[in-house]
TrEMBL record, chain A:
It is a multi-pass membrane protein. Its EC number is 2.4.99.28. The lineage of its organism: Bacteria, Pseudomonadati, Bacteroidota, Flavobacteriia, Flavobacteriales. The chain crosses the membrane at residues 47-66, 73-94, 106-131, 152-185, 191-213, 276-302, 314-342, 349-370. Pfam families: FTSW_RODA_SPOVE. It catalyses: [GlcNAc-(1->4)-Mur2Ac(oyl-L-Ala-gamma-D-Glu-L-Lys-D-Ala-D-Ala)](n)-di-trans,octa-cis-undecaprenyl diphosphate + beta-D-GlcNAc-(1->4)-Mur2Ac(oyl-L-Ala-gamma-D-Glu-L-Lys-D-Ala-D-Ala)-di-trans,octa-cis-undecaprenyl diphosphate = [GlcNAc-(1->4)-Mur2Ac(oyl-L-Ala-gamma-D-Glu-L-Lys-D-Ala-D-Ala)](n+1)-di-trans,octa-cis-undecaprenyl diphosphate + di-trans,octa-cis-undecaprenyl diphosphate + H(+). This is Probable peptidoglycan glycosyltransferase FtsW. It comes from Aureibaculum marinum. Keywords: Cell cycle, Cell division, Cell shape, Glycosyltransferase, Membrane, Peptidoglycan synthesis, Transferase, Transmembrane, Transmembrane helix. It is an enzyme of class 2 (transferase). Belongs to the SEDS family. FtsW subfamily. GO terms for molecular function: lipid-linked peptidoglycan transporter activity; peptidoglycan glycosyltransferase activity.
Length: 400, 646
């Protein structure tokens, strides 16, 4: 154990935040598991606790392993992974799993392990890496729209198109993140505008065709989206059950909260252990607890930005921002949904919510961030020894 | 810039939380409470009702209704267990296993999520059905739905059903209904929090208001006597195909109702505890009222039992109506005592008319003074109203009113009101109130106990009481009820055969008998009233009602553990006793010198001397004739004492 701790490298604050979040996550997860046990009627609370512990331990293994990989390898890895992701996404969609009549094919079952794997989370990380790689590679060149369309937007678009039918919010987040990274990576702003317009157009066509040919898209989630957005714009609608229950939870939490495990609404909020866990946290730990948790995520964001700025390669910077910011973004979206700032979407709270792939992919992403950070630390060590005057260009050539 | 946007975002979230908590907070908090917290009722346990001998008459038990949601069961569990479940259900509830299988399958197919299985299971059966295949998986996976109810059970069944009564949607009846304040207790309150659809958990460790369990009632009813009364009445009702009847057995000294049975006939001809006739039915008593008439006359000293009256040929015209005796041809000249014993209407009417004809109010006053014509104010609701005719009420008072009243017409009394007077006679003039409740208990602690309530400490002089007692004894011995006479166990009472519905073409009868037993030392008084027996089978009070009285009296007598003193008829021989006593005296004396043994039994003398340490030889048998050492001499233990017996 001490050996492992000794070998830990990278930003220590990020490590601490991860540890804090992971430790804290046991409280709301254990509390909210009574919903699954008592209401849905499967499993035991201890079972869910152990499962969560197991997921987190594996998550730490993933972080540890990932941050030991020199980050330049992720560049090539992303290219290899894009086709894999496409196949997995296609397979996921093809399964056509439905939850009460609507398409909810977001998961595939990992054989033998029996854990659902949400392919879009993997896709998200891979797409971000891929984007960072493309931008870093073309940093010095003049970017032509046609080239970038073929080399960047076609693969990214294919991935997004495969996620969209089952999960609009993830698609949108990835899309926005890709555009953000592209902007930061020096991609011309007018092209970004064009791509954004194109994306909205594609989405509009998708919705319209679904409305025009309802039979073909019978099981798509369009109606759910429409209903959710309608409910969001008309808060009086009684149908907005989840948002209402979340508000009840937040209101009854008051400043100090009811205390760990004493949430009442956890039994009535569907997805109280994942999508709406923030509402439960506020109910149990109050405004104070909810605020502290948010501070932790913001601190994480802060450290990620620091790692990104301190990194001496463009790829490193873009990679850290590309995989790191979505984590915090996702956290803020989750909180925003719980407090009613956004329409209801199925975004988990990173590192807190239950669900294997969500935790693991977050861990993978954090591992990548730490890998970059660790590389920087190693560089400083080497610099001290070699006093190499232009490490940036040297590294850049190696990435090639 | 990016970080700025994110922080702005975070600020928005914090703002929103604060808004929800403080601006809309009260609204949502109230809503959360109203949705998830409710007042739960913690039901107080209702008290039990016991008989005076400690048997349970009424208690609350849990009953379980079983339903099923066959839809919630997974295909795998359903197919695996349906055969086993059907078989078990068939064994427990009857019908074939095939029936149950197709029934449940059909329920599953039609998505009936509240499929009826059975109702009214006891606790043991409930445990059993819960362990059946499929059902043992529980509510969610096995589909079993149980609904618990608390129902009131009468362990003794239909006996005294009406007197024990009920307190539910049907109303308040009997002990259950009229003493509900003791029995009910007070429900507690406990806040409950919703934890899932249809599931609530207590919010706090303690109840907000603790329930107070109801108290137990120890009734005066004696299960043994009740049982005897019920069956004796039932048997007679069936035998005479009567419409309804009632029996009340009351303890003479205390007024405790030991048995009360009210049986009415339903359309099928079966008898059941229909209405509380004993309490509620006010009717013309007929000849049992002669007791009251005689007593008024005796008290006013207008007659004596020896007063002779001419009953003539058994018919006596008064105004436009004729009083008749049931005995054709009349009894001729008889004493008033005899008039009562044979229940001569003519005799009584003649005497009373003569004495009170000019002043009927005096007669009515006499009755009132005794305590007749008042409600007993029973704790059980629905007591029938007694009615005596009023001479001042000119519209309803006729010239014949007094005459008919003497033998129980135009007067209305409930069986209990009549019994109270008979009991007063048995109780040497002290009229006590009939009582149904002995004690109120909380667990083993007596909360309240009830003593006898004296309604009239003396209804008549002891002289009158004694006379009436003798007459009632004679009714059984040589009067109208000789059919129930038994010389080993004498009963006392008065028969009544009263016409009813005489205003229609189809005159019916009310046969009654009221009295007490044992005749010489009354312990219980009892009234039997049987309405509308089948005239073809019999209708006289002595034939229809008196046998019930007799049966009850005899059964109580034989079942009661009495200590009989068995006299020793073989006298122990006086001589033997005398001898033993003189010997005893002698033995117990301390001797310094030789006692005089003369005329003492030989064996006793030997024993006496040997006990003194002397050596004795003797000759012959019988009593001592001579002793070798003379009386008064000092003991010499070396010498042998010789006795000569004759």
């Amino acid at each position: 154990m001490t050996k492992v701790l000794k070998n830990i490298s990278g930003d220590k604050t990020i490590w601490a935040i991860i540890a804090l979040l992971a430790l804290f996550s046991f409280l709301p997860v254990y509390s909210a598991s009574t919903n699954l046990v008592g209401v849905v009627g499967k499993g035991t609370t201890l079972g869910y606790l152990l499962k969560h512990a197991m997921l987190l331990v594996l998550g730490f293994v993933i972080i540890y392993a990932t941050h030991k990989i020199p980050y330049r390898y992720f560049s090539g890895l992303s290219v290899l992974l894009i086709p894999v992701v496409l196949v997995l996404l296609a397979y996921t969609l093809y399964q056509g799993k439905t939850i009460s009549g609507v398409n909810a094919s977001r998961w595939i079952n990992i054989p033998f392990v029996g854990i659902g794997f949400q392919t879009s989370t993997l896709a998200s990380v891979v797409v971000m890496m891929f984007t960072a790689r493309y931008l870093a590679k073309n940093r010095e060149k003049k970017i032509y729209f046609k080239d970038s369309f073929l080399q960047l937007w076609i693969p990214v678009g294919m991935v997004l198109a495969l996620i969209l039918p089952a999960n609009f919010s993830t698609t949108a987040i990835i899309f926005v993140m890709v555009l953000l990274v592209a902007y930061l990576g020096g991609y011309p702003a007018k092209f970004i505008g064009a791509i954004l317009g194109f994306g909205i157009l594609v989405f509009a066509i998708f919705i319209l065709s679904a409305k025009a040919f309802p039979e073909t898209f019978k099981n798509s989630r369009i109606n759910t989206w429409v209903a959710r957005i309608e409910n969001f714009s008309n808060p009086d609608e009684e149908a907005n059950y989840q948002a209402e229950k979340a508000k009840l939870a937040i209101a009854s939490g008051e400043i100090q909260g009811k205390g760990p495990g004493k949430s009442v609404q956890k039994n009535f909020l569907p997805q109280s252990s994942s999508d709406f866990i923030y509402a439960i946290i506020v109910e149990e730990f109050g405004l104070v607890g909810g605020f502290m948790l948010m501070i932790l995520y913001l601190l994480l964001l802060f450290r990620i930005v620091i790692v990104a700025t301190k990194t001496d390669t463009i790829f490193g910077t873009l990679l850290v921002l590309g995989v790191g910011i979505p984590i915090v973004f996702q956290a803020l979206i989750n909180m925003g949904v719980a407090v009613g700032l956004f329409p209801v979407t199925g975004q988990p709270l990173p590192l807190i919510s239950t669900g294997g792939t969500s935790i693991w992919m977050t861990c993978f992403a954090l591992g990548v961030v730490l890998s970059v950070s660790a590389d920087r630390e190693a560089k400083i060590e080497i610099d001290k020894k070699k006093n190499d005057d232009n490490p940036l260009s040297v590294l850049h050539e190696t990435i090639g | 810039m990016l970080a700025g946007a994110m922080f702005l975002f975070a600020f928005g979230i914090t703002y929103k939380i604060i808004e929800i908590q403080f601006v809309e907070g009260d609204f949502y908090k109230k809503k959360a409470e109203s949705l998830t917290i409710k007042d739960g009722v913690v039901k107080a346990n209702r008290g039990n009702i016991y008989s005076s001998d400690g048997s349970l008459l009424a208690t609350s038990v849990s009953r379980f209704d079983i339903r099923m949601d066959p839809v919630t069961v997974s295909d795998e569990n359903f197919e695996k267990n349906i055969k086993g479940l059907s078989k078990s259900l068939s064994q427990m509830l009857g019908k074939s296993a095939g029936y149950w299988e197709s029934y449940i399958r059909k329920g599953r197919k039609t998505k009936n999520r509240y499929l009826f299985i059975t109702r009214n299971l006891g606790y043991n059966d409930y445990l059993k059905i819960k362990s059946f295949p499929m059902f043992n998986l529980g509510t969610y996976r096995g589909g079993i739905i149980t609904e618990q109810r608390t129902v009131r059970e009468h362990p003794i069944g239909k006996i005294a059903e009406r007197a024990v009564g009920y307190d539910d949607y049907r109303g308040k009846v009997g002990i259950e209904g009229n003493f509900y304040e003791y029995l009910r207790g007070r429900n507690g309150k406990r806040l409950k929090q919703k934890i899932a659809k249809g599931q609530w958990k207590p919010l706090n460790d303690n109840n907000e208001v603790e329930p107070v369990d109801g108290k137990d009632i120890i009734s005066t009813i004696d299960l043994n006597i009740q049982d005897i009364a019920h069956h004796a009445l039932l048997e007679q009702l069936e035998k005479f195909e009567a419409d309804h009847g009632t029996v009340v057995v009351m303890e003479t000294k205390t007024g405790e109702i030991k048995g009360i049975s009210n049986l009415g006939r339903n359309k099928k001809g079966n008898y059941y505890e229909r209405l509380n006739y004993a309490v509620g039915e006010s009717h013309e008593p007929g000849s049992t009222f002669k007791l009251m008439s005689m007593m008024v006359a005796l008290e006013d000293k207008v007659i004596d039992t020896s007063t002779v009256v001419d009953t003539g040929n058994g018919a006596y015209k008064i105004y436009n109506r004729t009083v008749r005796d049931s005995h054709r041809g009349g009894y001729g000249k008889i004493s008033m005592g005899r008039v009562f014993e044979v229940s001569s209407n003519v005799g009584l009417v003649k005497v009373i008319e003569k004495a009170y004809g000019n002043n009927p109010q005096k007669f009515i006053d006499g009755l009132h003074k005794m305590g007749v014509g008042y409600k007993l104010n029973l704790p059980i609701k629905g007591e029938g109203k007694p009615r005596l005719p009023n001479p001042n009420d000119k519209e309803n008072w006729y010239g014949t009113s007094l005459a008919w009243m003497t033998h129980g017409y135009g007067v209305h009394l409930t069986p209990l009101q009549t019994l109270a007077i008979y009991n007063a006679v048995a109780n040497n003039g002290e009229m006590v109130k009939p009582r149904f409740i002995k004690e109120i208990r909380d667990q083993d602690r007596v909360v309240e106990s009830f003593d006898k309530v004296v309604l009239n400490p003396r209804i008549a002089s002891q002289e009158t009481i004694d006379k009436m007692k003798a007459l009632m004894r004679n009714v059984v011995k040589k009067g109208t009820a000789t059919n129930i006479y038994n010389k080993n166990y004498e009963l006392a009472g008065k028969t009544g055969t009263c016409q009813t519905e005489y205003w229609t073409d189809n005159t019916q009868y009310i046969a009654s008998f009221a009295g007490y037993f044992p005749a010489d030392n009354p312990e219980y008084s009892c009234i039997v009233i049987i309405h509308k027996p089948n005239k073809k089978i019999g209708y006289y009070g002595n034939v229809v009602a008196a046998p019930v009285f007799k049966k009850i009296a005899h059964k109580i007598y034989t079942k009661k553990p009495v200590i009989d003193e068995v006299k020793q008829y073989e006298k122990s021989p006086e001589l033997l006793v005398e001898n033993f006593e003189s010997y005893n005296v002698k033995v117990n004396k301390k001797y310094e010198t030789m006692p005089n043994l003369k005329n003492m039994n030989g064996m006793d003398a030997v024993a006496l001397l040997e006990n003194l340490g002397l050596t004795v030889v003797f000759k012959g048998t019988g009593k001592v004739k001579q002793q070798s050492v003379k009386a008064g001499e000092k003991f010499d233990r070396t010498k042998i004492v010789e006795l000569t017996l004759s």
